[in-house]
C-alpha cells in the first residue's frame, strides 16, 4: 500500500472534522482547558484562579474544592496534559492580538484536539485493517463508516477524553498485531 494513502485519509477526515467542530470548549472540556492553562501559566492545577474572558461562555465548570481551599477540576490531568501543545500554540499566536482575545484564541486552539485525535484514530484503524489482511478498498470504506456513521463523530464538538482513549486502544491493538506478525516471521 502506498504510504501517502494514510496522509490522504488523515487530511481528508481532519478537513471535514474541522469544518464541523465548534471551535470552543464548554463543560468538561472547559475544566480541562482551565487546568491546562493553570499548568502552563501558573505551574499548578487549580482552576478559576485567573479571569476567564470569553463573555459568550459563562464559566460553567464547577470543580472540586481541595484541602488548600482552591478549586480543582474533577476530571483528572490526562486530557489537560495532552492539551498543552495546542494551548501553547494558541497562547503563542494570541501574542499578536489584543490581550482580551487570548482566551478566545487559546480555547479555539485547544478545541482542535478531538478532531485531530479522531482523524489519527481513523488512520490507525486503516493500518489495523490492512494488518489484518483486508484489501485497501474495504479498509478505506470501513474507516469512512467508522468516521461518519458511528458515535465518534459526535466527539469532534466536545472536550471529552473518549477520542484519546479510542486512539490509545487502536494503537495498542495495532502494536499487538504487528508484534505478533514480527514474532511469527522469526
Sheet/helix structural class: mainly alpha
Q: Uncertain spans, ≥5 residues at pLDDT below 50?
A: none
Number of strands: 3
Instruction: Tell me the strand order in the biggest sheet.
Output: 1-3-2
Number of helices: 7
Give me the Rg, rounded: 19 Å
Arithmetic mean pLDDT: 88
Q: Helicity range of the residues? A: 55-70%
Quick one: overall form?
A: elongated
Largest sheet: 3 strands, antiparallel
Proportion of strand residues: under 5%
**Distance between the terminal alpha carbons, to the nearest Å?**
23 Å
Q: Note the run of SSEs as H and E.
A: HHEEEHHHHH
Task: List the defining traits of the structure above.
186 residues; 3 strands; 7 helices; mainly alpha; single chain; 3-stranded antiparallel β-sheet; elongated
Report what the structure shows:
With 186 residues, the protein is mainly α. Helix content is 62%, strand content 3%. It is built from 7 helices and 3 strands, in the order H-H-E-E-E-H-H-H-H-H. The chain has helices at 4-20, 28-42, 78-94, 102-110, 113-131, 136-149, 162-185, and strands at 46-47, 64-65, 71-72. Strands 1-3-2 form a 3-stranded antiparallel sheet. It is elongated.
List the helices and strands and how they pair.
Elements: H1 4-20, H2 28-42, E1 46-47, E2 64-65, E3 71-72, H3 78-94, H4 102-110, H5 113-131, H6 136-149, H7 162-185
Antiparallel strand pairs: 1-3, 2-3
Helix pairs in contact: 1-5, 2-3, 3-4, 5-6, 5-7
Short structural description:
With 186 residues, the chain is mainly alpha-helical.
Amino acid at each position: 500500500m502506498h504510504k501517502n494513502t494514510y496522509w490522504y485519509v488523515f487530511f481528508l477526515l481532519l478537513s471535514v472534522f474541522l469544518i464541523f467542530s465548534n471551535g470552543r470548549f464548554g463543560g468538561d472540556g472547559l475544566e480541562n482547558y482551565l487546568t491546562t492553562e493553570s499548568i502552563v501559566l501558573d505551574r499548578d492545577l487549580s482552576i478559576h484562579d485567573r479571569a476567564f474572558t470569553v463573555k459568550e461562555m459563562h464559566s460553567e465548570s464547577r470543580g472540586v474544592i481541595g484541602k488548600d481551599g482552591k478549586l480543582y477540576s474533577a476530571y483528572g490531568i490526562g486530557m489537560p496534559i495532552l492539551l498543552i501543545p495546542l494551548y501553547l500554540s494558541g497562547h503563542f499566536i494570541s501574542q499578536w492580538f489584543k490581550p482580551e482575545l487570548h482566551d478566545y484564541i487559546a480555547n479555539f486552539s485547544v478545541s482542535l484536539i478531538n478532531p485531530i485525535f479522531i482523524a489519527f484514530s481513523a488512520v490507525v484503524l486503516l493500518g489495523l485493517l490492512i494488518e489484518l489482511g483486508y484489501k485497501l478498498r474495504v479498509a478505506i470504506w470501513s474507516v469512512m463508516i467508522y468516521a461518519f456513521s458511528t458515535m465518534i463523530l459526535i466527539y469532534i464538538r466536545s472536550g471529552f477524553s473518549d477520542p484519546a482513549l479510542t486512539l490509545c486502544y487502536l494503537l495498542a491493538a495495532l502494536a499487538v498485531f504487528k508484534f505478533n506478525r514480527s514474532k511469527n516471521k522469526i
